[in-house]
Each structure stands twice: as structure tokens, then as C-alpha cells.
Amino acid sequence: MIHSYMAKIHLNKISWVFVFLLAFISTSCSAEDPTDPFYTEERAKKVTKEYNVLVIGDSFSRDAFSYAPSVIENICPNLAINMKILYLGGKALNYHISYLNNNTFFTLDTYDPFTGKWYTNYNCIIGEDVICERTWDLVILQEGSNTIRSYEKTQSHVTQLRDYIRQRQPFAKIAFMLSPSKPDGSPALGELTSDQAWEMNAATTSSLLDNDEVEHIIPCGTAIQNARRTIIDRYGDFGHLSFDGDHLQEGFPCLIEAYVTAQFFFNLYGLASSISSCTIETSQQWVDSKHIPGKHGSAINGTKEEYNICKQCALSAIEHPFEVQQY
User: Fold this and answer.
1) pTM (two decimals)
2) CA-based Rg of the chain, rounded to a whole angstrom?
3) Averaged in consecutive runs of 10 residues, what is the pLDDT profile of the chain (327 residues)?
4) What pLDDT, on a 0 to 100 scale, did the predictor assign at position 14?
5) Dihedral sign, CA of 282, 294, 223, 110?
6) pLDDT at res. 51
7) Do the Cβ atoms of 47 and 80 come closer than 8 Å?
8) pLDDT value at position 38?
9) 3-state secondary structure the chain
10) Could you tell me if 57 and 175 are in contact, meaning their C-beta atoms sit under 8 angstroms apart?
């Protein structure tokens, strides 16, 4: 009887351990419930066209693209942007290629256009499943913030990843993000200035375009460098629109990149829309309500004049992607 009782205790312990592990796996591998019936019903009545956009990159993709669906939908409420970010923190694109080839888990950020919020699955997503799950209209590639300075490395990574995507998504448009440089004073720059680092990023991006490695570029970094020549350069905990000398501060610094992406999107699909009509204000409440992934610092809200400066910096980058404007 004693042995039987102890066996039951042992089995009960194993059962509880199993339940705990199952709960942990379920929690880490499932996003928050995106159901919001009130918002969904309202959105569903407006939407006449959906676009599927996949981003592959690191935390700088979160900076650049997390606000973009909201900007597009603010200007064109009849559109729904189904965006996902296939994310590896702090990794150049050769790591993404390795993870894809070896079925190693990614983190996945998913924007739901019918709730207006982001949801994240942590370290449990097979990348090929995401690439093949639907027909992607647009795939955006973002190279690591230091690797992009080298054309040889970036070209090798982009070519491999582009070919991988082409085999599975032959009709997707593929774009490359011209990433922002680090701000002056950042230890990551070494002996470079911010302008010099941007010039290297721009040279790599221009060469990718000239050599037909990618079809399109999104000049987010040019817009940020434009903004660093204006009165809004003073913002950010680190200064120069940066939170930490690496990432952009939450709020309108990230909104600048979203403006660029939105205008690029409108131009790409022949939509007669302009970011000039965007009414979003990046208050802390707005940022929190969107469940923005990987936030950096408190959100910076702006004045009407400051938002207009942000828009002008973005529009100038679209018109002159490889030329920083003097203000």
C-alpha cells in the first residue's frame, strides 16, 4: 500500500511538471487573442482591398515598419494591411537564411488590420511556414545595421534570401530597406560620423538596385538623416532622434520611417494618396494601444509644425533616395 501511495505521488508530480511545461510552451508560442468584435465589425464594413506584406529583418525592422500599416490605413481606410515581421534580434540576413534552411525558430510580429494592433509569437515560428502561408504582395528585406555598410556581404545575403523567396513566392515584389545610420556620438560608429555611415548604407543600397539584386528600395535612412538636419534633431533620450545611440526613439522618429514606407507603398501600387493627409499623433497612449513590438523609450509626440517637418523629410527621401537634403 505504501509503495502504491508513493507511486501515485510520483505520478502526480510528473503530471504537474507536464502541465507546467505545456502551459509554458503554449504561452511562448501563442500571441494574444486578437479578437476585438467592435473594432473588427467597424473595419470590415470599410475594407475593400487587402495587401499582404512580409518583412524579414531585426529590431530595426520593428522601428521602421511597426507604424506603417496604421499610417496607410489612416490615409486609406478602405485598405487593410496584413503585415508580418519575421524577426531575429541583432542578426544580419545570413542568420535568417541559416534559420530558414535549418527550420530554426523565429519570432513573428503580426499586425491585425481588423483590430489595429500587433501580436507577437516568441521563438516558435518556422520561417518557411510564414513565407508559404499566403500570397505575399510585397516582401521587404532589412540587412543588419553594421553589415549593410559592406556591399559584398549584403549582396551575398540578399541574393540568397531573394532566391529562396522567389522559389516560394514568384510573384511577390521584393524591396530592400535603406537603413538609418547610427547618430553622431554612438559608440557603434567607431571613427565614422553619422553622415559617413549613411553614405556607406546608401552606396550598398544603390548598388543592389543598379545590379538588379532587388526591384525596389525604401529609403528610411535617408529620411532620418534629413530629419537630423532640422530642429527636431534635438529629440530622443540619446539625441539625434535616437533612444540609445542605436535605435530610434518611440513616437515621431519611428513615424518618419512609417511615412516613407507608406508613400513608397502608395507609389508602388499606383494609389493617388499622400502622407500629407495623415492625422496620426504619436502619443504614448496611441503607441500603447497599438501594442507596438520592441518599443524603445517613451513616445515623442509633436506639434503640427514638427509633424509637417517629418512628412517633408520623408517625401524628400522618396524623391531623392540617395541624397540628404540641407535644411
Assistant:
1) 0.89
2) 21
3) 42 42 42 51 87 98 97 96 97 98 97 95 96 98 97 98 98 98 97 98 98 97 98 98 98 98 98 97 96 97 97 98 92
4) 41
5) negative
6) 98
7) yes
8) 54
9) CHHHHHHHHHHHHHHHHHHHHHHHHHHHCCCCCCCCHHHHHHHHHHCCEEEEEEEEECHHHHHHHCCHHHHHHHHCCCEEEEEEEEECCCCCHHHHHHHHHHCCEEEEEEEECCCCEEEEEEEEEEHHHHHHCCCCCEEEECCCCCHHHCHHHHHHHHHHHHHHHHHHCCCCEEEEECCCCCCCCCHHHCCCCHHHHHHHHHHHHHHHHHCCCCCEEECHHHHHHHHCCCHHHHCCCCECCECCCCCECCEHHHHHHHHHHHHHHHHHCCCCCCHHHCCCCCCHHHHHHCCCCCCCCCCECCCHHHHHHHHHHHHHHHHCCCCCCCC
10) no
Short-list 293, 275, 261, CA closest to 175: 261
Lookup: cell for 319 = 524623391
Write down the pLDDT at residue 327. Answer: 76
Q: d(Cα 220, Cα 218) in Å, to the nearest integer?
A: 6
Residue 85, phi then psi, degrees to nearest 5: -115, 115
Packing angle, helices 151-168 and 93-102, rounded to 10: 40
> For residues 217 and 176, is the Cβ–Cβ distance under 8 A?
yes
Looking at residue 41, its pLDDT comes to 78
